[in-house]
Amino acid sequence: MNKKNAVPYFGRRGLIFVLSSPSGAGKTTISRELLRLDDNLVMSVSTTTRPKRAGETEGVDYNFVDDKTFERMTAGAEFLEHAHVFGYHYGTPRAPVETALQAGTDVLFDIDWQGTQQLATDENMGVDLVSVFILPPSTEELESRLNSRARDPDEVVRERMAKASGEMSHFLEYAYIIVNEDIDQSVARVQAILDGERSRTSRQVGLHDFVQGLRGVD
């Protein structure tokens, strides 16, 4: 698949493209592939109090801050959404997302259902939201994927499996559902959703004038 560029007949406001799933269902892999394939999609970089892991880069994977800094940012309404997950705080800085949307760039979010709910109820951002929930084909496969990563100790895997049921109970709050049985098929389906949402009439800026010009109407 090749990267796609939109034909600039008229402008478009960017959209917020959310992928959520229980840990291990594949949203991170799908997200990376989407970013590789699509020139007009950028990743929202979250701020977190979680310690930086080996191989992670500040400002690329996350913005790493201490608890006091996170609390200050929360009090200053600097986050579009924020949540407490597995003992740490995560939040999405508002300013860079708003700048990207205004420029017509789509922003990819890898967040959980709590963050998605906050975005959906934001009076300024809710209209830009497109949400997709990624499900595993089975609980056995989900556990197998978590174990195969060999990154987390057994107790963390058990904690993630215990939390997965509660996370999946929120599937009806999402506009789209994908069962990630095959990663290539899942990426193709997510791309199709993104392309369709980009073409919505309500997202186009200058569409009316463009059509009037085609019709020869002043």
Q: What distinguishing features does this structure have?
A:
218 residues, alpha/beta, Rossmann fold, 11 strands, 21% strand, globular
Structural write-up:
With 218 residues, the chain is an alpha/beta fold. It has a domain at 11-44 and 104-215: 3-Layer(aba) Sandwich (Rossmann fold), CATH 3.40.50.300. It has helices spanning 27-37, 67-75, 94-102, 113-120, 139-148, 154-168, 183-198, 207-215, and strands at 11-12, 16-20, 41-43, 47-48, 63-64, 79-85, 88-93, 106-110, 129-135, 176-179, 204-205. It has a five-stranded parallel beta sheet, with helices on both faces. It is globular and about 65 Å long. The N and C termini lie far apart (40 Å).
Question: Summed up, what is this model?
Answer:
The chain is an alpha/beta fold. Helices cover 40% and strands 21% of the residues. The protein has a domain at 11-44 and 104-215: Rossmann fold.
Instruction: Report strand order across the widest sheet.
Output: 3-8-2-9-10
Q: Low-confidence parts lasting 5 or more residues at pLDDT below 50?
A: none
Based on helices, strands and strand pairing, what is the structural class? alpha/beta
Q: What's the CATH topology label of the domain at 11-44 and 104-215?
A: Rossmann fold
Residues in helix, %: 25-40%
Cα-atom radius of gyration: 19 Å
Gap between N and C termini, in Å?
40 Å
CATH top level of the domain at 11-44 and 104-215 is Alpha Beta
**Mean pLDDT, as a whole number?**
89
Molecular shape = globular
Strand proportion = 15-25%
